[in-house]
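hiii, so i know i said id send this last week but things got crazy w the move. better late than never?? heres the sequnce for the chain we talked about at the cafe, plus the structure i predicted for it. fair warning i was half asleep when i ran it
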Amino acid sequence: MVKDPGKTTLVELAHLLIFFEQENYPAERIVLTVERAAIGTIGDWHICMTTFLVGSPLEYTPATLSLLGAMVGRLHALKLSSLYSPPQAGMLPSGELAFAQQRLAVIAPLVPRQYSEQYELLEKALSSIGYGTGLPTTLIHNDCHPANALVTAPGQVTLLDWEEAGMGPAILDIGFLLANCDEKVPWSPLPAAAFHPDEDRLKAVIEGYCRYHQPTIGELDFLTDAVRFRSLVFGACSFAAAIAQHERAEFSQWWWIRYCAAEEIAEKARMYFAQIL
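okay and structure toks below
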């Protein structure tokens, strides 16, 4: 249930799920009210009822990750009709990076000397990462990782959690998914030892994806930033919050390791894409 002023977001979500049903794309389905409306009203509450997805969490096997990659490829290959115009996706690089830069600017006078090097690293990284402007856009999930999907039938993976979906560069979904094929949800720490991406999992995601959609050369050039920008934003905002609260501000394990692994992930992924395309 969503209460005003969230009705606009709820309407957009309902339109998205209706579009998926029309296109026979797996997702929750809208349960209409007795008046045959997608959204009902009770007092000042607006309600959208959907079917319940029954399934099991994804195992991080190449076979299952290939199914997930295929589902993302199918999403990016959907043709929009004149009757459905999705909004801009949430959490796009331009807004997210600007927000992180603003958070750092606020705490700049408060940074203790022992954290000045980390502050400078974050500031430089935020200013050097690309926004992905000019890349082809399509309907994207934009929070695309294995924990936001279920195995709903043999050979069937279904994505969920569509609140940030909308129009954006397809490579953002690919990058975030490739960054999270390591048996850990995005907010979990990775092993402290040297981390290297699992090549079989990366290849499986890419093979599944390319069954339905293929990235352009320009998109693949942006892949490194697509892999790392969400980790960087989280790291910068976490650092700023710790400084503001006078807490320890060492880089947390999960985002820093993924950030450092971005170039290797992107390099291997580009090699697999080249083999397939």
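btw The CA atoms of residues 145 and 177 lie 5 Å apart. thought thatd interest u
miss u guys!!
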